[in-house]
Amino acid sequence: MAEFWLISAPGDKENLQALERMNTVTSKANLSYNTRFAIPDFKVGTLDSLVGLSDELGKLDTFAESLIKRMAQSVVEVMEDSKGKVQENLLANGVDLTSFVTHFEWDMAKYPAKQPLVGVVDTLAKQLAQIETDLKSRTAAYSALKTTLENLEKKSTGNLFTRTLSDVVSKEDFVLDSEYLVTLLVVVPKPHYTQWQKTYESLSDMVVPRSTKLIAEDSEGGLFTVTLFRKVIDDFKVKAKENKFMVREFFYDENEIKREREEMTRLLSDKQQQYGPLLRWLKVNFSEAFIAWIHIKALRVFVESVLRYGLPVNFQAVLLQLHKKSATKRLREVLNSAFRHLDEVAAASILDASVEIPGLQLSNQDYFPYVYFHIDLSLLD
Questions:
Q1: Is the peptide bond preceding residue 312 cis, with omega within 30 degrees of 0?
Q2: Which contacts (CB < 8 Å, 24+ apart) does range 79-82 have?
Q3: How many CB atoms lie within 10 A of CB 42?
Q4: Could you give the CA distance from residue 76 to residue 151 in angstroms, rounded to a whole number?
Q5: Nearest-angstrom CA–CA distance, 22 and 334
Q6: Which residues contact 286 (CB under 8 A, 6 or more apart)?
Q7: Minimal CA–CA distance to 111: which of 238, 256, 297?
Q8: At what angle do helices 254-309 and 47-78 cross, to 10 degrees?
Q9: How many Cα atoms within 13 Å fall on the side-chain side of residue 5?
């Protein structure tokens, strides 16, 4: 996905000319595709309130970005068998994210521009907080179900030393309802098959002759039955272990096997029933959260532009879509050169990281002579 830089410069003649120069250079050098970014005329309020909103919007921006990343990851986890179609479900207002950002229009119905800015920000904050609360509860329930199901599936996919045996054995493999006799299941490593056949009858007293049978096999060994008297079970286990034969703790219980199978069927059914509604909720609310995030970016540009350039409100916002990651350094140089007149000292420090600005603790990576914000959609890939 695309990476964007959202910048603004004062709307006077000198800076409009600088924007034109920037557009010319970036286009010729194939650095970025630039479009105007429309921002409504908001009620400014007091400068003190704008300073407070600047801090609040910064935190809300970070929160919104984190939330949409988590939602995107949830879509990936839910669509475990269709990961190639994930991007089809990460849309905003029914269009791909790049198209939404490049054709952004402020939603006047949802976030009225004529109300005080603090009200707009409060609406966005409450909306995102509610989405996060719902995300936690919905994904927690689905994850718990998925984990339980995975644990049951793991039990039936391991080797014969560890896996459940209820789907391997049948009623005919056991001596049942006997007061004296019991059938044990023994895992024998493949190299020891011959040894087992020769020795199992003598591992303990009271082993029924010719009672062993191979009923299952995997790459490591085989599962054998053996019938003996109940009173010698403990002695047989000890002798079997000494000979590298593993007696599995399994006693045939038809009701328990039926219960396990019914539980697996129920869990699979529950997961399937939750899948559709959860994916639909994620699609709808990912869209809502993403739209809110871009509105927050627009608000930040407005607030920071007023604080940076002063009143009356007069600035031009531009969206730059980078053509490639490697263009980042060159694009910064072009922008800083075009707008260095906005803050000569800061611009010099950006072009020469060794220059220090008295009273400012800013690196050449986080300060620009123009208003700048970053939108990186590649984080959602």
A1: yes
A2: 79/279
A3: 19
A4: 20
A5: 7
A6: 68, 71, 72, 75, 89, 90, 91
A7: 297
A8: 150
A9: 22
φ, ψ (nearest 5 deg) of residue 284 = -65, -45
Q: Which two tokens stand for residue 204?
A: 């303990």
Give all strands (DSSP E) within the chain, no chain letters: 3-10, 32-36, 91-92, 95-96, 181-189, 213-217, 221-229, 246-248, 315-322, 371-376
Q: Please, what is the angle between helix 117-155 and helix 254-309, to 10°?
A: 150
Rounded Cα distance between 287 and 81, Å, is 22
For the record, the structure tokens of 115 come out as: 């109300």
> 88: number of CA atoms within 13 Å, CB side?
6
Closest CA to 165 of 71, 246, 240, 82: 246
DSSP bridge partners of 10:
315
Residue with tokens 């011959």: 194
The confidence band for 34, taking pLDDT boundaries of 50, 70 and 90, is very high
- Is residue 194 scored above 90 in pLDDT? yes
**Helix or strand or coil: residue 71?**
helix
Q: Which amino acid is at 59?
A: K
Report which residue type is found at 330. Answer: R
* Count helices and strands in the chain by DSSP H and E runs: 9, 10
CB 40 within 8 A of CB 113: yes
pTM above 0.85, yes or no: no
pLDDT for 166 equals 84
Kindly give, in sequence order, each residue whose CB lies less than 8 Å from that of residue 333, ignoring residues fewer than 6 positions away.
351
How far is residue 13's CA from residue 214's CA, in Å, rounded to a whole number?
Answer: 90
What span, in angstroms and rounded, lies between the C-alpha atoms of 60 and 173? 64
Work out the pLDDT band at 348, boundaries 50, 70, 90. low
| Amino acid identity at 344 | E
Measured between alpha carbons, how far apart are the two ends of the chain, in Å? 7
The torsion angles phi and psi of 186, rounded to 5 degrees, stand at -130, 130
Token pair 């603090």 is found at 118
